[in-house]
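Quick one: structure tokens for this chain, please?
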Amino acid sequence: MELRKSINGRRSGVILTYLFLTGLVLLFEYSKNSLWTSLSIIAEMVLFLGLIVCFTFFYVRTELWSFIHRPMKMLDEREIALTGKSLRYAYAIFTVVILSFLLFLAIWNAAIDVVMVAALVLFAHLLPASVIAWTEKEV
């Protein structure tokens, strides 16, 4: 795994990626409930492109994405411990976020759509790599 960027650069990348993901979902939900306009379609495409660029630069190029999805037999003891720690923190965060989100949906009698499900699946996959990017010093 190569964490070539500084810790502040990686943290900025994590924040930016989640901002693009959140903006993508919020704009989709808003546009779905009101009329889609050409401006909202263009904004949605810009947010999607921004998400792809952030994902590529901050998860793929730093090899965090491949590291967290690597089989355990390909990792040494330190990497196994790091992966275990990041998974533990990530899924604790994910559980709280999802249960809070489901509570919000139940209170507002709101439905969940496929874009939200896709965003939550991506969120679940990004969290362990985000924990490593946020906490680990340069290697």
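The first helix runs from residue 7 to 33.
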